[in-house]
Amino acid sequence: MALIEVADLHVRYGEIEALRGVSFAIDEGSVVTLLGSNGAGKSTSLRAISGLLAPQSGSIVYDGKSIAGLGPEAIVRLGIAHVPEGRRIFPGLTARENIMLGASNSRASRAAISREAEAMFALFPDIRPFADALGWKLSGGQQQMVALARGLMAKPRLLLLDEPSLGLAPVIVQAVFRIIEEIRKRGTTVLLVEQNARMALKVADWGFVLETGRLALGGAPDALWSDARIRDAYLGGPQAKASS
């Protein structure tokens, strides 16, 4: 059953039409990846779903309810969390404080939120030793894990991840994708935007390819990766296959 359905979505940045009639659905409990070149509309799709952008037309239906045009705070309360590109943690707060901010819309007590933060350190053991380090002192990989943990603090049913591996060393990329697999095992639905097509398709149940604001195609990960025409056009060309 689809947790979220996007239909004929149009989004503009001024005169630029960033999304032109995009439609897709995501089943609950699945990982779906949006692939495509820079400017294809991947991040715009996430921003429209999370309420950071208002669509010009089209519908976004989450759990049977229309959410197009709602603000980010209302959408978070419905169970959608967005981890944006660039991590955007607060440099003057500790890792623990940054993570606890993910529950800022929760009515839970501070003690309960603190316990949830401890649970995040169990899921992200690599950042436990840096729980009390300020954000600006963390490495890029540590900041990404803090950002993921902060997103999970909202206990989302749908987690939107925008370029979680961007700028990270290969060993850290592997760790981030292991965490995405663990998030899926916990039952959270994930919509993943990712330039690393090989890694994204390894964790995904389904993939969609966007091209200049339109949905070009969709399919199972193996089918997308094994089709040379698709790989060459959208997923990095012959060298991508060689590195798989």
What structural class do the secondary elements suggest?
A: alpha/beta
What gap, in angstroms, lies between the N and C termini? 32 Å
State the oligomer.
single chain
CATH architecture of the largest domain: 3-Layer(aba) Sandwich
Work out the number of β strands. 10
Specify the CATH homologous superfamily of the largest domain. P-loop containing nucleotide triphosphate hydrolases
Q: What is the spatial order of strands in the main beta sheet? A: 6-7-8-3-9-10
Largest sheet: 6 strands, mixed
Low-confidence parts lasting 5 or more residues at pLDDT below 50? none
Number of domains: 2
What is the helix tally?
Answer: 10
Q: Summarize the amount of helix as a percent range.
A: 25-40%
CATH class of the largest domain: Alpha Beta
Order of helices and strands: EEEHEEHEHHHEHEHEEHHH
The overall pLDDT average reads 89
Named CATH topology of the largest domain: Rossmann fold
Radius of gyration from the alpha-carbon trace, in angstroms: 18 Å
Beta-strand content estimate: 25-35%
Categorize the overall geometry.
globular
